[in-house]
Every structure is written in structure tokens, then in C-alpha cells.
Amino acid sequence: MSDKKGFLTYLGQAWLVLTLSIAFGAALAGVEKVTRPRIQQNIKDFIAVRLVEVFGAGTTTAEPTVVKVTINGRERKVNGYPALRDGKRIGWGIEAEGMGYDTLTLLICTDEDVNVLKGYRVVIDAETPGIGDKIKKRKSFVDQFAGKDAAAELVAVPEGSKTTGNEVWTITGATYSSKKGVVGTINEVLPAVRPALRAAMKEGS
Amino acid sequence: MLLTIGLAILVMLALGVCFAMLLGWANVAWKVDVPLQLRQLTDAMPGANCGGCGYIGCAEYAEAVFRGEAPPDKCPVGGAAVARHVAEIMGIDLQETLPYRPVVHCGADYDCRLKRAEYTGERTCGAANLVAGVQGCTYGCLGFGDCEWACQFDAVKMVNGLAVIDYDKCTGCGACAKACPRHIISMVPFKAERIVVVACSSKDPGKVVRSVCTVGCIGCGICQKLNELFTVTDNLASINYDHYDAQADFAPVLAKCPRQTLIYVGKPSAKDLAAVAGEELPERVEADFKTTVDDADYRG
Amino acid sequence: MSSALKRLGGSGSFARGVHPAGRKELAAEGGIEVVPTPAQVAVPLLQHTGAPCEPLVKPRQQVALGELIGKADAFVSAPVHASIAGTTQMPSVTTLPNGRHVRTIPIKAAEEQLSAAELWQDTFGGDWPTDGLDNYPPEQIVEAVHAAGVVGLGGAAFPTHVKLTRNQAKPIDTLLVNGCECEPYLTADYRLMLQAAEPIVAGGLLAARAAGAERIVIAIEDNKPAAAKRMAEAAEGTDVDVAIVKTKYPMGGERQVIPAVLDREVPTGGLPRDVGVVVVNVGTAAAIAAAVLRGRPLTHRIISVTGDGIAQPKNLLAPIGAGYGDLIAACGGLKETAGRVIAGGPMMGFALAELDVPVTKGTSGVVVLTKEQARSSEETACIRCGRCVDVCPLGLVPTKIALACRHGDWETARRYYLTACIECGCCAYICPAKIPLVQLMRMGKAMMPKK
Amino acid sequence: MTEAKNKPEAPAAVIWPVAPGPHIGRARSTRAVMIDVVIALIPAMAVGIYVFGWRAAMLIGVSVASCVFFEALWQQLRGRRQTIMDFSAVVTGIILALSIPWTLPWYGAVVGAGMAILITKMCFGGLGSNVFNPAMGGRAFLQACFAAPMTTYVLKQGGIETLPAHAARVVDAATGATPLAVKATSALDLLLGTVNGSIGETSAIACVLGGLYLIVRRAASWRIPLAMLISAAAVGELNCLLRPQTALPIQNQLLSGALLFGAAFIVTDPATSPLSRRGRWIYGAGVGALVMLIRLFAAVPEGVMYAVLVMNITVPLIDRYTVPRPVGGPTPSPKPT
Amino acid sequence: MAETSLPGAAARFRYGILNDNPTYRQVLGMCPTLAVTATLAGAFTMAAATAFVLIMASIVVSLLRHQLKGHLRILVFTLTIAAFVTFVDRFLAAYMFPMSRTLGPYIPLIIVNCIIICRCEVCAAHQSIPVAISDAVGQGVGFLLGLTSIAVVRELLATGGFFLNEADPSAGFRLIPNWPNWTVMQGPAGAFITLGVLMGVVNLISRRKRR
Amino acid sequence: MGVVTEILMLGLATAVINNLVLAYFVGICPFLGVSRRIDTAFGMGCAVVFVTTLSGVVTWAISHFALIEGAPLVNWINSLAGASPDKPVVADLLFLQYILFIFVIAGMVQLVEMYMRKFAHALYKALGVYLPLITTNCAILFVCLIIAKRPAIGDSFLRSLVYSFFGGVGFTLAIVLMAGIREELDAADIPEPLKGPGITLITAGIMALAFMGFKGMAG
Ligand SMILES: Cc1cc2nc3c(=O)[nH]c(=O)nc-3n(C[C@H](O)[C@H](O)[C@H](O)COP(=O)(O)O)c2cc1C
Ligand SMILES: Cc1cc2nc3c(=O)[nH]c(=O)nc-3n(C[C@H](O)[C@H](O)[C@H](O)COP(=O)(O)O)c2cc1C
Ligand SMILES: Cc1cc2nc3c(=O)[nH]c(=O)nc-3n(C[C@H](O)[C@H](O)[C@H](O)COP(=O)(O)O)c2cc1C
Ligand SMILES: Cc1cc2nc3c(=O)[nH]c(=O)nc-3n(C[C@H](O)[C@H](O)[C@H](O)CO)c2cc1C
Ligand code: SF4
Ligand code: SF4
Ligand code: SF4
Ligand code: SF4
Ligand code: FES
């Protein structure tokens, strides 16, 4: 069939592909419609669980406020999940990607106008069990973030030395996770996000 | 809802059309006809890639046949069946050939081979063949089994230091013949279940042979006298397989041979027999018995 | 570094190589003795690299010493002569130590033979002119050498007249007389240089004349000062140089001695001729002289019979075709400690399975080792220590090549230049894993599909 | 006429055993080489035991024992000739033990040995065929298995103090604390081995002694360690120029950590290093550079092990592309690769 | 050889499980095999998902096997597979959220899981629906076996038990008390080595059988 | 950080530190199957580099034109539907992501193959044979998905390009090294059951251990 019968022939040959495309397109669209809300609900619940841990029982969340911020030169989208108690926003859960021993994602919790740190939770991580995952497991390390001043830099000091003001001690043996991963990410994200979130709120209300 | 579906369909369709067009067009415009024949040929090959055909692999051979450079019956593994299949794919008529099968021209196991020295070198025939005095006979089987190693159909077994071929497993690929550094394995046309072979390769004078082997051919010439198939040239009997007649009665010769050098070997598979039913025979391949590599120059 | 080397530009040594214990003292001191004529000799019809000879004599035929008994028409070949007077026997076969299976012409000795003194006298004795040799036309020299069946006595046993024949394309400028004798134990060349320096010089001059070389160098390892001195005296007044080179195995190899002396590299797969050099062994040189000046065919050669397994180590002047047994007997037989009999030197020689095998023109020695001395053969896996790489005089990677040969992986073998190996044995000598590297290489060369 | 078979002619003469040349050889066997290595390792072991006490000795014992046991077991199961007498398993065992911290529980040594001998060595065909350095393979496995105990060094004298803390007193812990980071550690301490680290790597002198012994005995090539040290120093100095804030005094770079131990005993492992001389220079240089790069930029405390393993991967390629030129030039038609 | 006729349903089913087990014999679909076998749960889910896609795809392809055009064949296969994979992916995300988080990006990779295309090519594209289905089921079960065998070893060595969960100690069951967790087994290295060794063991056993 | 250094860092990180094969287990099948000889392994590698780069770029384009939230197409539809930007009727078409991506990859691989066979026969002989394998090499799709899912990479075209290219390079690196080792192992006395995939997997395992040394180097 070397003779050219024009492009219609090709479509003719491809009728199968085309009908399949149509069929599957439609089908998937259907699936999408059914599942989308559930999936988003799942994500919200997932976040909510962590917010509850930080802000206490009864906390819920809603659609995230997405803010565009530039962090060391690169434009990023950051999700700010509102922490709601009986409908009223009492704080933020800011979902931020960072680099520890491996890439990790934190949920940084602050009060409603991003002045005071309430704590953090690890959302996604690949840190080494036994070393890096102390940033999830060591309560003493995790808890020390509550109440720190979110407006100022956190200062990392080696484990064992006593901390004052905005200092936090980092886990020896897991410097990368604790210092670079947690402290570093918080210091990197908050300054950029704070104004953005506030701005978003202003025009929101 | 509808909007989403519509959009989805739209996108899919768009892409579908693009690729349908592109591929369809390309399929015509950039057509390279991989010839059907070639594909069939490649499929027809056993795919053992043993190289017995003398090509790197089945595919190579298939291409060679396709280009008309190779005869259709080169594949010993596939044998007659494949040969016929190939031939009809190529639409040529195939003059059936005999199944060539290896025979070991040595009948002396460890007990029959005299003057065997203790040898502590690399234990392969190829290596031992380069060292003088591993055993008295410099023509016969060394017994380290290079052929066994070479045969990928494990059709060669070493029996008390002598290579013995299992003709049920053997596919006639000839690897063993190539592997033997003493060239005592030759591929001969099997026209019968079992054929007579001269199980010796020694061209030495009878006296010498006697001193190193209890079964070797001493070139006495009795067989020559009794049966015209046999000829004795430099102290070694050989059989002319061109006129070999399966039905002929070799009992007298075998009985008369003073050294039991003449023996029956073989039993090719039914397939082979079918393939060879009533064919007249092509030239037989002459094995050239070398005692050692002649290009190893003397030093020290 | 001798003055000659300075002039020739050689460093006197080559890269890598090994230093096995020389053990030359065993047989170095005693003078060369003539073997009492054996009852029977078996003259092999193929002793050289090239085409085998066809017998010219019938069984039970009287032959005189030096009578032509076999020749071939091929150019690369050398005739063989009766090495004793006597009657020929039924032709037979024998397997030479290198595994080559050849036909022989046995000769039963007659009563009257040349006495030892006479034999020595007209082989090496008397005076040998060193001047006036230039009026021999080259063709005549080559012809005489061919007729005398002279082949390389240094090992390769390559027909010498082929080497000496001129070739317009590849002119020769230097003739290298190889007196290195780098093999441990062997002292045949050493004794020859001490006791027959003049014929060597004369032979050298003739060979140079034939090959058209204007420069003649005798290369001697620095563990043989006496020989060097003697040769220097003999070469007095001729334009023959004596070059002292480092003692190191395999200095005698032509691919080592040529760079060492002349700083020239013989191309892989090529010949010394490609760099304008012809190498002849000292014994060969003497044989050339005898052939040209006295018309004497090559019927005898000097053979070191030595080693700790032999009663009285000696150097013998033996007829070609005499059995190894005869030579050993002439040296008082074997001690019971004897564990291995080697034809040639311990590095490149071949173990003998039995003693009633004839010596050939190429046989430079018989070394008898005790069981303890013989290299142990219990093999472990290669630990890739790289010692073989560090000693290979050709800069190859022996372990790779050998193991490739073992697995029939010819592509790898080629990629690592299997064919460049000279089988000197350094790698196997040094290998802690005791892998038979050389044998694997030889096997590889034999089995590798030619293409 | 079968009597020919019945009464074979007796051999004419006595038959001597035949063997291929060369017929003489150097006496030193594989075992001799390995024993040399064991001897070379004695100083390092001694210092290790002196500094860390009986536990160190115990670990060495366990490790060696399990290595030998595993090799014996494997050969038995495979019905192969027993190879433990070539002592390479012993060497592996010692080097494995010397490269782990003394605090590791005993079963750690067993697991390491298993990985080293069974997986890294025997699976690949045993002595000489292994692509990766068995000891390092075993150690890498341990490090990935028991990361925490493998990466926190507890100082013996002066009570229990985690190394990072020890480091922290001196420098900001950012640099990934290992004795490397400790500017204050005096070169003398490093030389004598009164500093922290794995059992064997503490004393520079012990390692150097062992290394020189190996080289003099020709058990190891001098080229690889030489290349390794040079390139490590070079990279270190370059770093000093470019990033002064992280600069370390050169003697600390070279003397501390497992660098010298590696140079002496690990990169010299013949089985896992290239054959050609050029190849060995490349290999050594590669290890040296990688060690420094990993120390400076990666999140792992010490680079030697990883550097060695990474370079092991490249050895076949190095070998393949550094085929030495034969004297007299390549053969007329060498197959191009 | 060419002329050998294609095996029937029963044979296909058996082959899928033993003779050409996707993991140990055909050595296909290695990526998910290695990636998700850190835990049994992951292995099960992945196997189920793959099996589902495999079966559905086989059915569709087998249905259309007479319409397939040379140059568009692969396109049709991938389209079909991708559609079902998307479905599975969404389903997991909607109804098994935690699992879909752990399996992460490996669910979409089912699309290119060589097994599926391979089966479409080898079986579905030539044979009738029943055969295709039984083949798919066989392969699915085979895949399940492969994954499970690996996951058992890895999870046991890594945690000393199965379905354990630090969060609540009651969950799962611990086989080896205070086992020093071999964390390497959760990572790539552990996966490769485990599978390598298992492959050796399987070959050993099957060879024994043949004897 | 200068653009060049940024690119280099990302490239290094992608090819070595987060090597597709050794860190993410993708493209294992060819990694096991086509690593017997160095030259074929290299051929495969080149083909993969080529295809990853191509599909990486094209899928990036498609996502950004049609699929993601706020892509021109989506916006256009929404505006047609007269929806307000903050309450879109169609949020995004990401549910078509997989099907479209694989569609593109498969289609393109086929096109490339046809093209080569016709116009670059030498190249086809070298790479062509591997192309069909590549359709089912999950490395390609994986790269496309990473680009689509990790904003850190997918947000900028340049980074996507670099990532997809060096992803392929990483694959090539791994497979060629493996081929070198396997050629070496031809001569080794490996237990029968382990020959082939078995020993290859174990080797890969130790390689993965070795590559852990680069952890935390980049970023
Ligand atoms: C196998 C392995 C895993 C590691 N995992 C982590 C980790 O998850 N997080 C981390 O910060 N450091 C990790 N490290 C890095 C070492 O623990 C390193 O010594 C430590 O981070 C340096 O911090 P320090 O200054 O507190 O000692 C790991 C090291 C190794 C060898
Ligand atoms: C490893 C090796 C060692 C050799 N040693 C010597 C030697 O010591 N003396 C010698 O004359 N020839 C020796 N030869 C032979 C020389 O290479 C060369 O062939 C010979 O000297 C040429 O002279 P010819 O033909 O007269 O023998 C050796 C060859 C090899 C390969
Ligand atoms: C610690 C040490 C370092 C050495 N360094 C060198 C060197 O840098 N260059 C050199 O040519 N030889 C050096 N040598 C000598 C070599 O060991 C060897 O003797 C010399 O290189 C010749 O041997 P070869 O043929 O293996 O090169 C050194 C020896 C030792 C013990
Ligand atoms: C100089 C030298 C260094 C060695 N270093 C090591 C080593 O670092 N690790 C090891 O497992 N074996 C080592 N060995 C022992 C042996 O070579 C090693 O087990 C081989 O890899 C076994 O194939 C060494 C041997 C020698 C001679
Ligand atoms: S002989 Fe037959 S099976 Fe063997 S390679 Fe040739 S074609 Fe293939
Ligand atoms: S037949 Fe040839 S190859 Fe086979 S064992 Fe005998 S000598 Fe060796
Ligand atoms: S016995 Fe010889 S010819 Fe027969 S199959 Fe084996 S190797 Fe081939
Ligand atoms: S010397 Fe022996 S052990 Fe060492 S590399 Fe060479 S062959 Fe291997
Ligand atoms: S499943 Fe990833 S390449 Fe086969």
C-alpha cells in the first residue's frame, strides 16, 4: 500500500485508536468526577490529623490557600492549610518541601498571623530509620519548636548545649535531618510565606 | 460534568488524530519493507544460536539464506525438517543431504593407551597436546574432554578417557570436531543406523603403534584385501564412505582385523533416517589427522 | 655500561623481566667433553622451523660422518646429515620434547669413528682466518650454510641461510651475535665462547658479509666476564664489538637484546630484519664458519648437561640424534633425587617423558632438577596481584590473556595481544597462584581461529 | 586375536612425570602473600585493642572466625576444593573488624562477615573473581543496616562521649562531625592513635608501618596508595583555596579517619584493583579524590569505604581501556573495541 | 519453532504461575517488584492492582485482536493499559489513601510494567478471551507469588515481624522479639540483594526438580 | 547560584546521586536484560537518553498547555463556560496525565524508530533494535511523571530538560558499568543458579550500597 490515499485513509486505519481515545477519555472523566472530591477530602483529613496533634482536639481544616512565593530565586507554590476550630481560623499548617538527608515535606504550624511557631510535623520523608527519623520520633526535639518566634531566624545549636530565646538544639548523628532539614526549611520558608499569606487573607476578607 | 467529559474527549481525540496521522503517514512515507520471507526464515530457525551453520547466530544464517548466500540445509540442529521448511519459504527445491555425524577415530581408552605419564599441567586436550609424552600415542584421544566441553547438547561423554558420542543427543553441529586439537573427530555422512568406522588415527608404523596402544591400527592391510571399501595409506586404514553400503556384511572384515580397530558406531534419530532415505551420497569430508600444531616452534 | 653500548646507543637492559638464580657454576668450569659415540643415533628429519626433509638413504645403507641423508626442496628448510658413520636402519618416528611428532633415520654406529681429538680439531680447533673473508661472495656463503644444514642453535632453530639471504626491501646494517645465554643453568654458549672464540668471530664476519651488515656486535651478559674478555681478544683487529648487557632473563630473546644493545624495537609480528638487524647465536656463528671455511655440515653441537639431579654436570659435544639417555650416561647418570628431566633450559625447556629421545640441532641443554626444585603445580585462583604484568618483558597482561584462552574467549585474547607473547615464562615463574600461564598462551595460539 | 589386549607390551623406558614450563618458580604462594598481609595488620590491631580494650579483640575474633566459617561452609556446600587455607578469608575478617566501631554488638560482625564472604566474595566465584572488596561490601551492608551504631563513635577514655559532641565543643557541628572536623585534634594524637574512630583506623603510624611492609614485601603495589594520597591531598588543598571556611589543615585531612588505613590495606586489595600500571594510577587517584569529595560534600561521616566501592565498580572498564601497549607496538590487526 | 501451536487456557494458567513466572522466569516487571516489596501490604496491593489491569487489558486486547494494525498495535495496548491504570490509581487514592501514599509513583508505572504489554503481545493479541483471561490470571497469581516471597524476606529482616507499626504496638505481629532491624532491607540495596539471592534459590530448587 | 552551576548540580544529582536505576529502581528490566556486553549496553543507553529527553520535553509542554490547573486550555474552557477564575468548572485534566503521557511516549518511540529505519540506517542498526524495548521501559514514564509531579523540577522548562537528559545519562552510566562488570564475570566461576539475572541483581545491590555514599551531596 505504497500509494498515498491522503490522510483520511490514515484516520480510517486509526479508527480503533480514535474510538478508544474517545471511550477512555469519557470513562476517565467519569471516574475523575466520582473520585475527585473523595481524594481531596482524604488529603484534608490527612492534614487535619496532624493539625489536631499540634493545635489540640477539635481542629479541622479546609481548602488550602495557595500562595506563590519566591524562595532563594525559585518561584514556588506553597499550600497554607487553615487550622479551624468551630469555623474560626486559629492558625496555619504550611506545607513546605525541604532537603534533609533526603528530600522531605514538613507541615509547619503557626498561629493565625504567622508570628508564633506552634510546631511542625513531617508529612513525607525518606530519612534513614534509626538516624534521620529521630526528627519524627524524638518528642523532646519536636516539642522544642512550639512557642518560638516565627518572625525571627531559628538558631541551631549542638545537642546538649542549653538553649535560650530562638535557639533549638539539633540531633547529633542526624545533623542533616534535624539542622538542614527541619530548622533550615522553617527558616527558609516562613519569611517568604508570612507576607504572602497575610496578603491573601486581606483580599480574602 | 459534561464539560469535563467533552474536554477530555477533545484532548484525547486531538492527540489521537495527530498520532494517527503522523504514524499512518510515516508508515507509508517511510516504508521499509522488512521482507516477509526474511521474517519467516528467522522464525523457522531453531534459535539455538549454536553457530553450527557457520554463522554467528540463527538470525545471521537466516539473512544469509535470504540473500541467497547460504544453502537452506546448513542448520544441523533443525535438521531436515527445518531445511525443508526453509527451502519452501525460499521457494527453492532442496536436494536433501545426509545427516553428518561426528565419529571419533580413536578406540583406545585409558587401559588400551600405553606409556601414559603423570601430567600436571592445564587439564585440557588443547594444552596437553602441546606437551610431549602425556601418553605414548600422539594421534589418539587425550581424554581431557575438550569436545565434551564444546558440545552444547551434551552429546559427548568421556568414558574411561575416551570420547564417546551419544548419537541420540548429537545434532551434528560439528562443534566437537572443531574443538578436538588432534582432529580425530570427523563428520561423516550417516546413511545407516550404525556405520563402520576405523577407530584409530595413528599413521605410525605398526611397531610403534604396538608399543603405545593395544587396539590401534597397524596398517597390516587385511581389511584392504577383504573389502574394497577399505584402503590403507601410510599405516592407517580408511573407509570410502562414498560407496559405503549399509546392507553390506562387514562381519568378516571386523572379525579378521587383528586389533579390533574396526567398530560400529552410531544410531542417528528417525528424523535423520527419513531425511536420508535412498539418497546418493555427496563427497565425504576428509578429516586431516595432525599430531600436533606444526607452528609451535622449538625453543631452548 | 661498556664502551660499545655507548656507541650503539643501547641502555644495556630492557624493561621488566625476572632474575632467576643463575646456577651456572654447576657446569661452567669443566671444559667441553666429547661424547663417546653412542651405539645408535636417530637423526630426526625435522629439527628446524620449516618443511620436513625427505630421506635420501635406504635402510641398511652405509653412511659416512657428515653424509647427506635427508633434504627438502622448500627454501625454508635445512638438510640433515649423518652425525656418525654407520649403517642406516628402518625409518622410525619419535616425539620430540616439544610435542612435535617426526620421522627419524636411525644409524647404527660402525666400528671406526673419528676420535674425540680429531672431532674437536676439525669442528672448532685449528686456526680461523679473520681477514680476507670479504672476498667470499655472499651467495657462496649462503649456499655453503644451506648445504651444511646450519640452523639457529639459540633455540628457534630457524634455518640460518634464510636469515642471511639479502633482501633489497629490508637491508641489514647490524649483525648481532647472541652470547647472552640468559637461561639459568645453561653454559654451552659460555664454554664455546671460552674455548672457540675464533670460529665465532670468523663466523660473525662471514655472516655479516652474507647479510650485508657493516656492523657486528657480540652481546654478552655481565655475569660472564671471562667470556667477554676472551671474545674481545679474539675480536682484536677486526671491527667486531663486544657489548656487555645486564644479566636479566630473558635478555637473550631477540626482542630484548636488540633494544638493549641497539635501542631499536622489533615490531610486534615482525622480525629483527624489520629494524635492520640479524641475530645469530654464538654457536650458530661457529657453525657458519665451519660450514663456509671447512665445508663441515652441522652434525654435532654443544649441549649443557647440568642441574642438581645429575652426577657430574658437564658440557658435551654431542652428535645430533644421540639419545638424551646417552648424554646423561656420559655425565655419570642421574642421582636418585632427580625429579624432572628438561630438554633445554628450565625456563623455556620441555619436560621429558622418556630418555630414549634424540637430541636435535636446537637442543641447547639438558637440565635435571630435583623434585623440590621443580615448580610446584598446585594452583589457586588468580588473585590479580599483577606480578605477571610487572614482569612481562613485552608489557602484556598475561593473566587476562591466559584466562581468556582458558575460556576460549578469543576476542579478549586478541584485544590483549596474545600473538605478541614470546612464551618466555616470566609470568608463570613469578605467579603466586601457580597458574600455568605460558601453557595457556601456547594453547591459545594453537587453538585461536586464524583470521 | 585378542591376546594383544591381554598382554600389552611393557613400556620401553621409565616414564617421567611431564609438566609445562617454566620448570622453576618463585617460592611465594598465594597463602604467603595473604600471611604477609596479616603480619602487616598486626600493628593496627595492637593499637586498636590498646585503645578500645577487650571488646575490640572480641570483635576481631568473631569477625575472622565467621569469615573463615562462612567460606568453609560455602565451599563444602558447593562441593569445591576447600580454600580457607589460602588465608584470604582471614584477611577479610581482620580488615572488616578493623573498619567498624568498637561499640558494635557482636552479631554485627557476624552479619558483616556473612555479607562479605557469602555475597560479596563467594557468589562472584571466590578468591580473585570478586568485583567488590569483600570487607567493604560487608561494612557497607552493616552501615546501611545499623546506621546509628555504625556512625556514632563513642570515645573510650574520658568516659562515654559521643564524637559529634566532642566535635561540637570545637567547631560548629555543621560540617558533619567526624574526627575530620576537629581542627583541634593534634597531629600527634592522630599519629599515635589516641583519637577516635573505627578500631583499626585510629593510629596513622600503625597503618603506615603496615603499608610499607606490604610494599617492601611486594604484596601490594605502591602505585595505588601513592596515587590515592597524592590526589586526596590535592583535592583537600583545592578545597582550602576555594572554600576556606571549611578548610582543614592538611595533616588532619591525611592522618585522620580511615584514609591511611584504606591506603595501606584496602585500596591495595589486588583482587579488586586494576591490573595495568596506568589503570592502578587512575584507580588510586579516583579513590583519593572521591574520599575527599564525599568527606566534604556528602552526608556520610567517612568516605573511604564508599569511594573504594564506587571505584570497584569502574575497575573492569579501567582495565578494558588501559590495555598496555605491547613492546613493538600493537599487533598488526588488533580488534578495535 | 514457528510451527508450534499456542498453548490452551489451562496450560497458560499453569505456565503463568510456574514455568514462566513473571518474576523468576521472565524477569519482567522488575521495577515495581523491587520498589514495593519493602512491606507485605505494599506487595499485596501492587500485585492486586497489576493483576486487575492485566486482566482487563487482556480482555480488551483479546476482543480487538482482529482489528489490530501493525503500526498502531502498541498504541492501542498502551492506551488500554493506561486507562485502567489511571482508574486503579484514582481508586486507591480515593478509598485506600494511605496505601496510595506509600506506593507513590509506582502505581502509574504499572502502565509500563513489561509483563502487561508482553502478555498482550504474546497471548491476548492472538488468542480468544477465555484463554487470555486464564493467562492473565495465571500471570497475576505468579506475580503475586513473586512479590510476596520477596516481601516476606524483606519485611521480616527489616522489622522482625509483619504489619508492625511503631505508632500502635498492638498492630501486626512480631516474630522475632527485639530483633535489630536491618534497615538496609527497606532500601534499594536490600531489595536487589534479596531478589538476587531468591532468584538463585529458586533456580537451585527447580534444577533439583528436573533431575 | 549561576545558571550553569545550577544545571551542573542538578545534572550531577540526577545522574549519580539519585540515579534512576540504583536509587529509584526504574528501568530495571533493560538494566538486567541488555547489560551483557558493553557496546550493546551503551547503545541502549544512548537510545534511552534520546527518548527520555524528547518525551520529557513534549510531556512538559502538554502538561503546561493542557493539563495543569491554570493551563491555557483549561482557562479557555472555563472562560467559555463563563466560570469565575476562583470557582473553575474544570479544575484540571490531570486525570488524563498517564494516558496522554504514555500515548505520547509510545507514539514518539514508534515514529523515531520508523524514521531511523528509513533515514539513519547506521544509527538504526546501532540503536533501533532497542527502541521497541524502550516503550516499556518505565524509566521514561517515570521521568515524565517526576517532572510533572515535583514542582521543584517541573516548574521550569530548563530544569525539566536537564532532569530528563541527565536521567537518561544516569541510566546509561549504570547500565554500562554493569555491562563492564558482567563481561568481567564471564570468566568467573559463578554458581550455576546465580548466573545471569541472579548475580546481576546482587551486583546491582552492592552498587546501590556504594552509591549511598553520595547521599546528601546535592541540594
Ligand atoms: C547509612 C547512613 C545513613 C544516614 N542517615 C542519616 C539521616 O537520615 N539523617 C542525617 O542527618 N544523617 C544521616 N547520616 C549521616 C551521618 O549520621 C552523619 O554522621 C551525621 O549526619 C553527621 O551529623 P553530626 O555532625 O551530628 O555527626 C547517615 C549516614 C549513614 C552512613
Ligand atoms: C625468551 C627467549 C630467550 C632466549 N634466550 C636466548 C639465549 O639465551 N641465547 C640465544 O642465543 N638465543 C636465545 N633466544 C633465541 C633468540 O631470540 C634468537 O632466536 C636467537 O638468538 C637467534 O639466533 P639463532 O637463530 O642463531 O639461534 C631466546 C628466545 C626467547 C624467546
Ligand atoms: C614506598 C615505595 C615507594 C616507591 N616509589 C617509587 C616511585 O615513585 N617511582 C619508582 O619508579 N619506583 C618507586 N619505588 C620502587 C618500586 O617499588 C620498584 O622497585 C620500581 O618502581 C621498579 O619496579 P617496577 O618495575 O614495578 O616499576 C618505590 C618503592 C617503595 C617501597
Ligand atoms: C595487599 C592485600 C590487601 C587486601 N585487602 C583486602 C581488603 O581490603 N578487603 C578484603 O576483603 N580482602 C583483602 N585482601 C584479601 C583478598 O585479596 C581478598 O579477600 C580478595 O578480594 C578475595 O578475592 C587483601 C589482600 C592483599 C594481598
Ligand atoms: S546451526 Fe541452526 S541453530 Fe545453530 S546457529 Fe545455525 S541456524 Fe542457528
Ligand atoms: S576426542 Fe579430541 S577433544 Fe575429545 S577428548 Fe579426545 S582428544 Fe580431547
Ligand atoms: S557431538 Fe559434536 S556434533 Fe554432535 S552435537 Fe555435540 S558437538 Fe555437535
Ligand atoms: S601473577 Fe598470577 S595471580 Fe598474579 S595476576 Fe598474574 S596470573 Fe594472577
Ligand atoms: S518494569 Fe521497569 S523496566 Fe520493566
Task: State the main characteristics.
heterohexamer, D: 337 residues, mainly alpha, 15 helices, 58% helix, globular, E: mainly alpha, two-stranded antiparallel sheet, 8 helices, 2 strands, binds flavin mononucleotide, binds riboflavin, binds iron/sulfur cluster, binds FE2/S2 (inorganic) cluster
Please describe what this structure looks like.
In chain A, the strands form 2 sheets. In chain A, strands 1, 2, 3, 4, 5 and 6 form a 6-stranded antiparallel beta sheet that branches. In chain A, strands 7-8 form a two-stranded parallel ribbon. Chain A has 205 residues and is an alpha+beta fold. Chain A is 43% helix and 28% strand. In chain B, the strands form 4 sheets. Chain B has a two-stranded antiparallel ribbon with strand order 1-4. Chain E has 8 helices and 2 strands; from the N terminus they run αααααααββα. At the C-D interface, β16, β17, α12, α14 and α15 of C face α2 of D. The site of riboflavin (RBF) has 24 residues of chain D, from α2, α4, α6 and α13. FE2/S2 (inorganic) cluster sits at the interface of chains F and E.
Instruction: Quote the distance from N terminus to C terminus of chain E.
Output: 25 Å
The average pLDDT value of chain E, as a whole number, equals: 84
Distance between the termini of chain A: 68 Å
| Number of H/I helices of chain A | 5
Biggest sheet descriptor of chain E: 2 strands, antiparallel
Beta-strand percentage range of chain A: 25-35%
Task: Name the largest protein-protein interface in this structure.
Answer: C-D, 70 and 52 residues
Annotation, overall tally of beta strands of chain A: 8
> What is the spatial order of strands in the main beta sheet of chain E?
1-2
Spans of chain E of at least 5 consecutive residues whose pLDDT stays below 50 are none
Number of helices of chain E: 8
Question: Number of DSSP strands of chain E?
Answer: 2
Run of helices and strands of chain A? HHEEEEEEHHEEH
Bound molecules: flavin mononucleotide, riboflavin, iron/sulfur cluster, FE2/S2 (inorganic) cluster
Fraction of residues of chain A in helices? 40-55%
Strand residues, percent of chain E: under 5%
Structure described in brief:
The complex is a heterohexamer of chains A (205), B (300), C (451), D (337), E (211) and F (219). Chain B has eleven helices and eight strands.
Q: What's the arrangement of secondary structure elements?
A:
The complex is a heterohexamer of chains A (205), B (300), C (451), D (337), E (211) and F (219).
Chain A (H helix, E strand, L loop, with lengths): L5 H8 L1 H41 L3 E2 L4 E7 L2 E12 L2 E12 L3 E9 L5 E8 L9 H4 L1 H5 L11 E4 L8 E4 L4 H30 L1
Parallel strand pairs in A: 7-8
Antiparallel strand pairs in A: 1-3, 2-3, 3-4, 4-5, 5-6
Chain D lengths: L2 H4 L23 H23 L1 H25 L9 H11 L7 H16 L12 H12 L1 H5 L11 H8 L16 H6 L11 H13 L6 H20 L7 H6 L3 H8 L10 H21 L6 H18 L16
Chain F lengths: L2 H15 L2 H5 L3 H6 L4 H30 L4 H9 L16 H23 L1 H7 L3 H5 L2 H12 L1 H4 L2 H29 L11 H15 L8
Helix pairs in contact in F: 1-11, 4-6, 4-9, 4-11, 6-7, 6-9, 9-11
One flavin mononucleotide (FMN) binds next to helix 10 of chain D.
